[in-house]
Amino acid sequence: MEEHTFRTFLWRVVSIHTIVYFIAGILALVFMNYKELFAGEMLSVFMRPVDSPWVAAGPALQVFRGILLACILYPFRKVFLEASYGWLTLWLLVLGLSFVSTIGPTVGSFEGFIYTKFPIPYHLLAIPEAVVYSFGFSYLLCAWYRRPRRLWAVLSIVLVAFILLMSVMGVLSSLGILNAA
User: Fold this and answer.
1) What is the tens place of the pLDDT at every residue in 34-52?
2) Which sequence ranges are marked TM in the entry (predicted)?
3) Would 38 be classed as within a structural domain?
4) Residue 97 belongs to a domain
5) Predicted structure pTM score
6) Of 71, 134, 161, 173, which has the fewest Cβ atoms less than 10 A away?
């Protein structure tokens, strides 16, 4: 197993988080029709429309969330990076703490079912994106440590740069600075 330096761990967590978050978000946007759902009567009260500059900036801002994740997970890295099924441990931890058992009443969470007025279908809609993200993040992070290759690093740099560029272009487009062709 490769050395567990903080800098290496930080980059891997930030890049995997940003990439998987972007992919899960795009899949949810396309297959779960977030544009219409967020504009609907129930969610428009607290969700920004998908053409908001803040939503466009979201993927780039995930770099900061990735830094937080890396700082939080680093002291526990050996628990999931050195165990046979460490990815499963990490997956259950991420899914459990960031989605199912959140502190606040978010859509799809245990607290959300209890304290919000959202109908059950709204809560169920949040599950696929959370499962795809948490599984992808956990599995890929552990796989990168199990089979470290230069390709992982190169691919992560290219994909994160692409996501950052797309995010900046989305912000510029939503502000009317960059016109769609």
Assistant:
1) 888 778 777 777 788 888 9
2) 9-34, 54-76, 88-108, 120-144, 151-178
3) yes
4) yes
5) 0.91
6) 161
- Residue 95 included in any domain: yes
Distance between CA atoms of 20 and 39, rounded to whole angstroms? Answer: 25
Look at the chain and report how many structural domains it folds into.
Answer: 1
Burial label, 36 (beta-carbon count in 10 A; 0-12, 13-18, 19+): exposed
User: Does residue 180 fall inside a structural domain?
Assistant: no
3-state secondary structure (DSSP) of residue 157: helix
**What CA–CA distances, in Å, run from 54 to 48, 99, 105, 133, 160?**
8, 22, 22, 20, 18
CA-to-CA separations, 92 to 42, 103, 129, 165, 174, in angstroms, rounded: 30, 17, 15, 32, 36
The span from the CA of 123 to the CA of 84, in Å, is 33
Buried b (16+ CB within 10 A) or exposed e, 144-176: bbeeeeeebeeebeebbeebeeebeebbeebee
**Residues near 67 by beta carbon (within 8 Å), at least 6 away in sequence:** 10, 14
Are the C-beta atoms of 167 and 60 separated by less than 8 Å? yes
Q: How far apart are the first and last CA of the chain?
A: 48
Residue linked to tokens 């992070």:
141
* Structure tokens, 160: 């994160």
